[in-house]
Every structure is written in C-alpha cells, then in structure tokens.
Structure to design on (243 residues):
C-alpha cells in the first residue's frame, strides 16, 4: 500500500457530523456504523496519514435548536458541547477496540474522561501516529463545530480539511430535492462565499481561505469514499484558493 508521505497531503482534519454516527437510527449512536467509520480511519493510519477529527453533537443535541425551543442559548450550546464529548469518547472506544491509538482532547476541562486541549500536545500525538479527536467545539458558545474544525485545522497546520456529508460533494442546489442540481468537482473559496453555497458556515470557510487549507467535501455514507478521496479519486468536491 502506498504511503502518505508520497502524496500531496499528510495531516488531515476530518469533520464528522453527529448525525453521521446515527446510521439508520433516529438518534444516538449506531455501534455497527461507528465501527465501519473506525475501520476506515484505521486504514488512513496504516497509510501513514496523521488523522485529527472533530465531531458534532447533532445526534443528541444542538444548542441552536434548544435555544429555538426556549432554552438559554449559552446553556444550550454547552449541552451541545457535552454531546460532542459523548460522540468523541464513543469513536475513541471503537478505534481502540481495533488497535488504533487515540486521544480525545476537550476544549472544556473534563480531566477524568479526556485530556485538555493543548495545541503542542495535540501535534505531538499526531506525530506519534495517534488519532486525535477534538471535543467540545471551541469551548465557547455561538460557535459551530464547523468553525471549531477550521480553527483546529489551522492550529495543527493541517494539509487538508475533509467534511463528511450526506451527499457526494457540493451542488448548485440541494440534490436531494432537485435532480438537475450540478455537482462541482472544484471550486474556489470566493465562489463558495459569493454564491452562498451551503458547504460550511462563513466563518469556517474564511478561516480555511485565509490560511490556505483546502476543503474536501465527500459522502461518508458511501463506504470507502474516505479512502478513495485521499487516494485522489473523484468522489467529492474540493475547495481551494484560485490562481
């Protein structure tokens, strides 16, 4: 198997939504689905990629949704951050069961269940071949896990940020509603922002643009697409700086 050092990218930041862990369930975590994700991540480690992950908490709670229902937004966001810790620990367990060394690092202090987030320590874990899962978003309310993913990608000097979605890339319209929607293979950050394509939050896109981190959108539900994407196959859409 070819090694990561011969490829354009070495250090990856992968953004998973909380819903990605549900599989066919209505909420929570599907053990079979999370094992399949863990297997693909193990393959990346064996290919000598350095792998960091940010997971959302939408399979349990969304701070914005709780706020719309009447809860204080800051309280809701803190509940959402704790949901990401649950997901992070679950993925850590799945990885460790198949022999992958993994560390969960939280932006909130929860020392009894995971490490505090420290940038230099996170980079050291990655250099030693450990998967690092960043939990609790940025540790601050009003910031999405997309923004947290971009922030962590910048902090660890990731070569590529990958976002797992329910569709195989970026489309001109919602492909689940419009069969005529066109899939873009390659876009610039400026195109995404000017055309208001719903890829990630504006703050997250701008951070990637300003620090020149390419963004790859792919469908995690297509088994094996994560590996195909890093091998250079056309299974998604890439956003990067234009000429």
């Amino acid at each position: 198997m070819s090694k990561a050092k011969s490829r354009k990218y070495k250090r990856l930041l992968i953004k998973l939504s909380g819903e990605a862990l549900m599989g066919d369930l209505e909420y929570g975590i599907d053990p079979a689905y999370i094992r399949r994700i863990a297997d693909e991540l193990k393959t990346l480690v064996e290919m000598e990629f350095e792998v960091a992950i940010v997971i959302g908490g939408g399979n349990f709670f969304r701070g914005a949704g709780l706020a719309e229902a009447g809860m204080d937004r800051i309280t809701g966001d803190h509940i959402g951050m704790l949901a990401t810790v649950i997901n992070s620990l679950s993925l850590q367990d799945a990885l460790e069961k198949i022999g992958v060394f993994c560390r969960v690092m939280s932006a909130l202090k929860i020392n009894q269940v995971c490490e505090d987030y420290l940038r230099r320590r996170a980079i050291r874990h990655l250099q030693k071949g450990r998967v690092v899962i960043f939990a609790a978003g940025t540790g601050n309310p009003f910031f999405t896990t997309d923004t947290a993913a971009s922030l962590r990608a910048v902090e660890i000097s990731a070569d590529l940020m990958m976002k797992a979605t329910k569709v195989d890339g970026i489309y001109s319209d919602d492909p689940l509603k419009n069969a005529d929607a066109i899939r873009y293979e390659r876009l610039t950050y400026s195109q995404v922002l000017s055309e208001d394509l719903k890829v990630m939050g504006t703050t997250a896109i701008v951070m990637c643009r300003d620090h020149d981190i390419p963004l790859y959108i792919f469908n995690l539900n297509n088994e094996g697409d994560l590996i195909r994407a890093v091998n250079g196959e056309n299974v998604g859409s890439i956003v990067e700086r234009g000429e």
